[in-house]
Amino acid sequence: MLHDRVRVRKADGCGAHVEGIDLGRLTEREADDVREALFEHGVLFFRDQSLTPEQHVAMAEAIGRIDINRFFPALRGYPQIAKVEKTPEQRSNIGGGWHTDHSYDAEPAMGSILVARETPPIGGDTLFADMYAAYEALDDDARAEIAGLRAVHGSGHVFGAAGTATRGDQTALTARPGVETPESVHPVVIRHPGSGKPALYVNPGFTLRFEGRSREESLPLLQRLFAHAIQPERVCRFAWRPGSVAFWDNRATWHFALNDYHGHYRLMHRITLAGVALEAA
Ligand code: OGA
Ligand code: MN
Question: Which domains, ranges and CATH numbers included, belong to the chain?
Answer without folding.
Answer: 7-273 (3.60.130.10)
